[in-house]
Amino acid sequence: VQLVESGGGSVQAGGSLRLSCAVSESINNMYCMGWFRQVPGKERQGVAVIWIGKNGETTQTRYADSVKGRFAISRDNAKNTYYLQMNSLKPEDTAMYYCTADVGVTPVGVDTWSQAPMYAYWGQGTQVTVS
Fold it and tell me: What does each C-alpha distance from 126 to 17, 18, 26, 68, 84 come to in angstroms?
């Protein structure tokens, strides 16, 4: 599975960005898909995750407390792409953002979704800078 992010950039505080993650396989084959972010010297932090049901529907989502109400994760099965809509951006949102996915060999649970080692596939990252 290959993941390719796009949509990062520089934005002023209060602005919005939408990150995209193109998946090389059908989203219907994914167990869950998520977004992490990382700043230099710190661990990769879970931002949002979406679980996919057997029919390709969304079954659950989870968000880091720091982004609840501002960020939204969504998917477009027809395009094999999922998104992170980021609104009301703050300087502390500045980071490299990575999309990630897992096919469920070791299922990611609601209590482990923010742990990076749980995910098998990663994109190359896209930089988001908020000033």
Answer: 12, 11, 22, 21, 12
Q: What's the one-letter identity of residue 121? A: Y
Give yes or no for a contact between 37 and 55, defined as CB atoms under 8 angstroms apart. Answer: no
Report whether 32 contacts 46 (CB < 8 A): no
pLDDT tens-digit readout, 41-71: 999 999 999 999 988 898 999 999 999 999 9
What is the β-pairing status of strands 3-6 and 58-63? Answer: unpaired
Give the whole-angstrom CA distance, residue 37 versus residue 54.
Answer: 28
Q: How far apart are CA 95 and CA 40, in angstroms?
A: 8
Give pLDDT, residue 70: 98
8 Å CB contact between 86 and 125: no
CA distance 66 to 108: 21
